[in-house]
């Protein structure tokens, strides 16, 4: 904030900057142009060749860059427009296919197109049914596991209370199968008519 201190700092940094610009031009064979205005508006400059020539070269270079950027931007915009048009066509085709799958707009379809739609629907229904059956099976297996855990917990509580335990479902199924087999071994005879005399 002190004016005198700021002027001293400016002089030191200006001289250091001019020295670095000179070293850069000499040691690296670079074209350097440096322009500095002091807080009072005084001009300080350094140029390895000519400040005006260096500025002209800079302006020509920037124009070339702007032209290259503009050309690249035009090509990018053209490519972007082509992609947008392609996506619009795909969206239109998908919407038309969706309508046909829902049963709308079938008046213009040929027999081959209708057969293709029918095949797509059959394939989709098969996938839906397979997934539904898999979910049902997972749910049933989960319920069986929960039932088994509840029966085990119920039996444990009955044992603690001195009550007879329940038969698990899998064991009950085995007993039912054995009972069905025993019933199958029993022979029966059916006779229609007057009763026969016993010997």
From TrEMBL:
<feature type="compositionally biased region" description="Acidic residues">
    <location>
        <begin position="173"/>
        <end position="188"/>
    </location>
</feature>
<dbReference type="GO" id="GO:0009908">
    <property type="term" value="P:flower development"/>
</dbReference>
<dbReference type="InterPro" id="IPR002487">
    <property type="entry name" value="TF_Kbox"/>
</dbReference>
<keyword id="KW-0539">Nucleus</keyword>
<keyword id="KW-0804">Transcription</keyword>
<dbReference type="InterPro" id="IPR033896">
    <property type="entry name" value="MEF2-like_N"/>
</dbReference>
<keyword id="KW-0238">DNA-binding</keyword>
<keyword id="KW-0805">Transcription regulation</keyword>
<dbReference type="Pfam" id="PF00319">
    <property type="entry name" value="SRF-TF"/>
</dbReference>
<protein>
    <recommendedName>
        <fullName>MADS-box transcription factor</fullName>
    </recommendedName>
</protein>
<dbReference type="Pfam" id="PF01486">
    <property type="entry name" value="K-box"/>
</dbReference>
<dbReference type="GO" id="GO:0005634">
    <property type="term" value="C:nucleus"/>
</dbReference>
<dbReference type="GO" id="GO:0045944">
    <property type="term" value="P:positive regulation of transcription by RNA polymerase II"/>
</dbReference>
<dbReference type="GO" id="GO:0099402">
    <property type="term" value="P:plant organ development"/>
</dbReference>
<feature type="domain" description="MADS-box">
    <location>
        <begin position="1"/>
        <end position="50"/>
    </location>
</feature>
<dbReference type="InterPro" id="IPR036879">
    <property type="entry name" value="TF_MADSbox_sf"/>
</dbReference>
<dbReference type="GO" id="GO:0046983">
    <property type="term" value="F:protein dimerization activity"/>
</dbReference>
<dbReference type="GO" id="GO:0003700">
    <property type="term" value="F:DNA-binding transcription factor activity"/>
</dbReference>
<dbReference type="InterPro" id="IPR002100">
    <property type="entry name" value="TF_MADSbox"/>
</dbReference>
<feature type="region of interest" description="Disordered">
    <location>
        <begin position="160"/>
        <end position="199"/>
    </location>
</feature>
<dbReference type="InterPro" id="IPR050142">
    <property type="entry name" value="MADS-box/MEF2_TF"/>
</dbReference>
<feature type="domain" description="K-box">
    <location>
        <begin position="77"/>
        <end position="167"/>
    </location>
</feature>
<dbReference type="GO" id="GO:0000977">
    <property type="term" value="F:RNA polymerase II transcription regulatory region sequence-specific DNA binding"/>
</dbReference>
């Amino acid at each position: 904030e002190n004016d005198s201190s700021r002027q001293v700092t400016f002089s030191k940094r200006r001289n250091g900057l001019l020295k670095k610009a000179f070293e850069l031009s000499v040691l690296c064979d670079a074209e350097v142009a440096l322009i500095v205005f002091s807080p009072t508006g005084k001009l300080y400059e350094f140029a390895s060749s000519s400040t005006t020539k260096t500025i002209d070269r800079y302006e020509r270079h920037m124009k070339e860059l702007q032209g290259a950027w503009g050309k690249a931007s035009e090509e990018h915009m053209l490519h972007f427009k082509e992609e947008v048009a392609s996506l619009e066509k795909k969206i239109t085709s998908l919407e038309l296919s969706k309508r046909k799958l829902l049963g709308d707009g079938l008046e213009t379809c040929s027999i081959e197109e209708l057969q293709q739609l029918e095949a797509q629907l059959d394939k989709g229904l098969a996938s839906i049914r397979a997934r539904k059956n898999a979910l049902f099976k997972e749910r049933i297996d989960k319920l069986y596991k929960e039932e088994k855990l509840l029966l085990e917990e119920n039996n444990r509580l009955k044992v603690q209370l001195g009550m007879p335990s329940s038969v698990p479902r899998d064991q009950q199924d085995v007993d039912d199968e054995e009972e069905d087999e025993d019933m199958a071994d029993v022979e029966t005879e059916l006779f229609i008519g007057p009763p026969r005399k016993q010997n």
